[in-house]
Specification:
This protein is α+β, with helices and mostly antiparallel strands. About 30% of the residues lie in helices and about 15% in strands. It has 19 helices and 26 strands. This is Fungal-type protein kinase domain-containing protein.
Amino acid sequence: MEDEVIEVSPCSFLHDYTPFNPSDEDVQACFDELLKAGLVTQLEDGRYDVSEVNQSLSGSTSEFPSYTSLSTICETIAKAQLKDRSASCSSEQNLLDPVTPGLSDSSDLSDSLDSINGYFKLLESTAVASTDLTTADCAVDCEWRLDSCANNIVENHQSVAEHAARVMNEDPRRLFTYSCPQMTFEDTRMTLWYWSRSHCANPVPFDFTQDIFTTVRVLASFIFARTDELGFDASVQRRLDYTDKKRKSCFVFRVQDRCFKILRSISEHLNPRRVAGRSTRVFEVLEVGSFDDLTPVPGATNQILKDVWLDAEARTEKQIQDDKFQDLDEFAKKIINSKEGTSEIREFTGASPGDQEMLRTALCKQENYKRYFLTIDCDQQGFQSKPVSPDATVTDNIFTRLPLATVPASLPYANSSRSHLTSATSSQHPEVKVARQPCDYVPKRQYRVVFNEVCEALQNVRELKTVIRGMQDCLTAVQLMFLAGWVHRYISGGNLLWFSETETEGRGMLSDLEYAKKFDANGQGRADPKTGTPLFMPIEIQRQIYIYRRNDVLDSSNNILDYDHPLDLTDDKPLHMIHNFEHDLESFFWLLLWTITVRTGDINTQNLVSSIFLQSSQCSPDREKAITDSRGLISGLNTNISQELKELVEPVARLRRALMWGYVNRKQAFSDLATYSPLYGHVRKALGQCLRIAEGPGVPSLPVSFPCEEAKEVHPLPPQICKRVRSTTKTGAGSTSRKSQRISKDGKSTRGRKGA
């Protein structure tokens, strides 16, 4: 999580991150209320003192009584009359009950609530099923400690970060959230945190008893903020469903001018240890009349709603799909206008007559090829995260280091010798710092899309023959994308779907086009980042090294050992790794192998491939050999696979051999479409042979399913920085240009504030 945190000054935090920046007049109005109540007094030297806070801190040994005075200060500030604003929050000292369950499983973070001993509560409660306080009404959580020892400060950071992740992950209404932790006895420091799907901002701590006006400004920015300024999304509402016999609470999402009630959560790709990222949620929904009318609209059927955070300038799934369909229409015209049929079309090189006819039939009408892809009903782009503050810097080891800085004690009752934050062992064991690399923090934009088809991921389908049928249809979808010049870049067991049209009929459908892009063999001078789920990721993408190596011809006739033999150094630049069409096909190989080994539940085959299917972005030696030299894998399959599935080993081996042939014989001719087109037919034949076997007697079901596709972090760098970058132009092949802000260890943000 540390890689998503930047540090800013308190002034910049107020300007760029607080819910709103109260004017000087607003602050003075709040300050006058404190003076009137006697909570702030003026000393002889003209300075102001919060004596009640100082006395309560010095006279107590526990957090709750010590900070009662802070609640009193907040209550007093709330009485101030601000122009066009009224108090929306109150300061509470209370442990929080869990948020409404059922949307995510974050029980591993339940302990994080134990240390949250205060929070700013919404005055207008959003809880609908109970009058109990819940995290649904927690606008800002607070962590108060009397002990300022270094290890406790680190523990405090970790606790606050985990709680922020829990709040953001469990409540789909949260666009961003705040924490106001680490008020300590010895140095009365206040530390603020802003958490978003793009990054986290953490200002330099300040003494809240000395810098009183800053303290009042911060507290007022929370107390008088609107709910949307506190990070609550008005387009998602919690409601009590009176149409349900049990009257359960539910969430209702608005997309454009339509409302969709959540029926169940299908998958949630939420990291319990991170806030920043895509944070994809997928729900089964039903369209209803409005937030307050949960009756289904006439003719409503169950649909799928996907809620995700995209890079701010990334193209949406609908934009990508529209562009792809347009390119397919253009390719269809190319076939119609071809005088010599398909013989002169390189995309059909090596394709069998049957495959060519199948593709021509699919292209002759839009409804024919669209059936292989999800139907988008509606979509909407929403809130964009705050940009990085211009003076932001990165700070190492926020969650691990032992702070060595000395902060002078500010209370008259404090012993200044105890304000040092060094540990007893710090001099014996010097701190080891690992410098963070410069980072690009990309703003995120919320995106929602509603699909008509409610499907099941192939990784959950129980019948092997149905999985293979789904793969066959999805292969056709991927080949259609090839004809249009697009690569998918994210083939996995969760993105290949099965749509049951009737009890006995269905078809495979390809989903998750967010990473799809026009293929560009040159990559516009930059490599593609790693994309996909590690289990199904091509080994070239994982290793960032091509299987075919560009080397001199090393046969004996070239006299390489003659030292004076001519040596060409002009063409020695490294090749950028570009995701090509064969990489999509290799993912089919991994999905097939994974299905017949891991999903069968057979311990022997699972052990055989345990070093091949790892949830890691790195490619293991055994995984590499499974493609480049499969003798060990094929021999192991023949020995360990069940008798009912033994015939599947041959098509798997043939498919592997075809993929290796493609990589080696293509060499570096990545733009030669004729080197890819024969492979689709080969994969189709292998799947056809597998289907004939799977339809035979005695083939067992697949007991192992994966309802939540996990471990999507596929890049060693932070996901908000360069993980799975999508194309950001409509037709610019391979373009990954985007606006971002680079933050270096010692430098500032490279983008200035507008109007500054």
